[in-house]
Amino acid sequence: xxxxxxxxxxxxxxxxxxxxxxxxxxxxxxxxxxxxxxxxxxxxxxxxxxxxxxxxxxxxxxxxxxxxxxxxxxxxxxxxxxxxxxxxxxxxxxxxxxxxxxxxxxxxxxxxxxxxxxxxxxxxxxxxxxxxxxxxxxxxxxxxxxxxxxxxxxxxxxxxxxxxxxxxxxxxxxxxxxxxxxxxxxxxxxxxxxxxxxxxxxxxxxxxxxxxxxxxxxxxxxxxxxx
Amino acid sequence: xxxxxxxxxxxxxxxxxxxxxxxxxxxxxxxxxxxxxxxxxxxxxxxxxxxxxxxxxxxxxxxxxxxxxxxxxxxxxxxxxxxxxxxxxxxxxxxxxxxxxxxxxxxxxxxxxxxxxxxxxxxxxxxxxxxxxxxxxxxxxxxxxxxxxxxxxxxxxxxxxxxxxxxxxxxxxxxxxxxxxxxxxxxxxxxxxxxxxxxxxxxxxxxxxxxxxxxxxxxxxxxxxxxxxxxxxxxxxxxxxxxxxxxxxxxxxxxxxxxxxxxxxxxxxxxxxxxxxxxxxxxxxxxxxxxxxxxxx
Lengths: 227, 297
Known about the structure:
heterodimer; A: mainly alpha; 79% helix; elongated; B: alpha/beta; Alpha-Beta Plaits; 4-stranded antiparallel β-sheet; 10 helices; 14 strands
């Protein structure tokens, strides 16, 4: 276990600024959203605003600002983690460590996924808490489902950054990046109503899960010296 | 007995980049306790060999073994026995001097942090100085300190002199030579500065495009390989591959490189009906011999 903690230590040094930076932005956005909501409640009254939010067409997506926050975190964490490894092919230092190459690549990816999970958990928990203080379950449950889709996108994005970064061939990198971006639109497609992802959530979760091992393929190709 | 046990063994190594042949059927043996230098011009396949040895490149055919294990699939136990210095002393530049020592210490059972800090304390840097702010010479000392702390049995040093000024190069070489000889370490290294290698290595491999020209003790090579200088009346004389290892000339002044002795060279010139003047044997350093063998360009 000791080598894995030390590997995580290296990853933490690279990513901590990106993590804290995006976490501050994420928490700031949550507070900003609810400052706006509380202002409207003051103006319209709690009942009036709730009815307006539920029955207005198109529905009021008061949390829309959060849509790109998990993506921002995933991009910042992924880039800060993999860019220094790719620069000057520094990944050779990592692959030379006395641990199996697959374990090293998987360990780096696991770290990134755990950090994104921590980010998601903090921001989502804060949002859900503040949401539950103001709104009934009829509102908070579908809102949570929409948010989950957006937060799942962070895993997909992170996995594709890792997959693309370690790929040694430029054309393949371009292809992976474009594929990642095109598929990402599925996660961000349903904006205009609450509970948008209630039916597609299992598929999106499965896609995010299945994208996790992709980095091992790039790691394998890198290790073989493919060009 | 132990001294001759092979640490590195490459058998019939063949590699191509696309359709371009790098080398074919290359065989390398580095015995335990030897310091082997790999020399070759740019593009001769030095980095390819280093990458195959470190398991970062799969050869088209053939196999490299380190401590009997295929380099494409080295176990963590064998990796622990190998110290690797990347060309340009590349390190984790986002770490500082303290962090990098702490990071590596978790991977090696016999980590000797005192060896690292005693070397680092010689530098005018603080433990919290980031590696990205260091000069190449300082980075070289950090890399060397990490290798000393790891205490590997085999060191692979890829172009270790790149970016170092003469003082740092000399410091690095003297430290390395003393450490390797006293601890009976095996070293496989490349460098573009052959004068540096000459101070360090026991054995040499000289590679040319697609093939190996020399493998063996440096002394054997420099004793056997000779250079003769002479003037001819003409400036258009050519010699066959079977007559000389290489011939360079500027106008009618010729430098003739061969494994033959002076008598044989003079006999060759006589046989070709070439009148020579100012015939002399050149004193060749390893660098002179390398250039003499592989040509200036």
